[in-house]
Amino acid sequence: MNERTIRSLVFEFLLFYGAVNRPMSFFDIYRYLKRKTVEWNISQIYAVLNSLLSEGVIRTHEGLYSVSHLTHETLPRRSQDVCGDKKWMIFMRYSRVFRFIPFLGAACAAGSMSLGNVHEGSDFDTYIVAQEKRMFTMRFFLILLTGMLGSRRSGHHKKEEGSNKLCFNHFVTAKSLLLKPSYNMYWQELYAHFVPLYGDKKIIEQLREINAWTKAMKYTDDRRYGGDAKNIICRVVEYLLHGVMGDFFEMVLKKIQLYKINTSVLCAEYEPRIRVSDDELEFHPDTRRIKEWMKKITAHRGGR
Fold it and tell me: Which residue ranges does UniProt annotate as crossing the membrane (predicted)?
């Protein structure tokens, strides 16, 4: 890649994270360029950054880079990271529940916890992979147990009440691991930074391979990953519900949950991103914030 392309990639990257209020380090920029298969060395990338700095396109403060004409409305990066570390301790403690949930194949952290643009009111968006033909059974046990433990954000929670609560807004089976459009930079960065918390590594790696468009780095062990060991009670329930009895249980739970889902969809707000099928349940009833971020990026592209 030539220097002009690298400059464009760096600017777009800092512009996106500026829109979501998160200045980035040199390592963040370097890792992003590696994802884009840029084989430049550190000194060459520093040269591009220094060029953008001298032109006033970007700025730097305490070793962090951002676009010059964007203001940050949330916590400074270092305070943001401290807030994130505290939240990760809570999130990881909550994630232990996944080993008790029958037919749960994998769970990944998403949203602000994966992007890093957290604040005190942030909840814990969680992407769930369920076993085929047991989506609604798995969801029943997941909602039941996390509700009993008080760790789940429910629909009636106001935004400020959802802080430090698990938010289950996307469920899939192996048939729906390919993430759906739109493939803009927001969804690309979000899915590229999924953090595996629990589940079969083969499923987690398959998720990355199928979604090659995200250009996510190859999965490596992360200290936040809690393994794939199932609790003995979970294994017993899976054995009891693997056959005809399980099919009947799934059918009943599907009817009940679809009724509740269809009722709640009526409360959707701005340009909802909602999908409901046997192999995918996605609930993003209000995409206004995402639209605003992308508009901000588009509006400031001329600032180079």
Answer: 97-115, 135-151
Helix (H, G, I), strand (E, B) or coil at 137: helix
Task: Report residue 236 CA to chain centroid gap.
Answer: 31
Q: Can you say whether residue 150 is alpha, beta or left, with left for phi > 0 and alpha for psi between -120 and 50 degrees?
A: left
220 — phi, psi (to 5°)? -130, 160
105 neighbors 200 (Cβ within 8 angstroms)? yes
Q: Is the pTM of this model over 0.85?
A: yes
CA dihedral (218, 33, 194, 257) in degrees, to 10, reads -110
| CATH class, range 3-73 | mainly alpha
41: phi then psi, degrees, rounded to nearest 5:
-85, 175
Phi, psi at 97, each rounded to 5°: -65, -25
Q: Are 19 and 297 in contact (CB under 8 A)?
A: yes
Q: How many CB atoms lie within 10 A of CB 111?
A: 19
CATH superfamily, with its number, for domain 79-292? Beta Polymerase, domain 2 (3.30.460.10)
Average pLDDT of adjacent 10-residue blocks, the chain of 304 residues: 89 89 93 89 93 93 85 70 96 96 97 92 96 97 96 70 91 93 84 94 93 84 91 96 96 95 71 86 78 71 53
Residue type for 286, please? D
For residue range 251-287, list pLDDT tens digits in order.
999 999 999 888 876 566 666 778 899 999 998 776 6
Question: Helices 26-35 and 3-19: crossing angle, nearest 10°?
Answer: 120
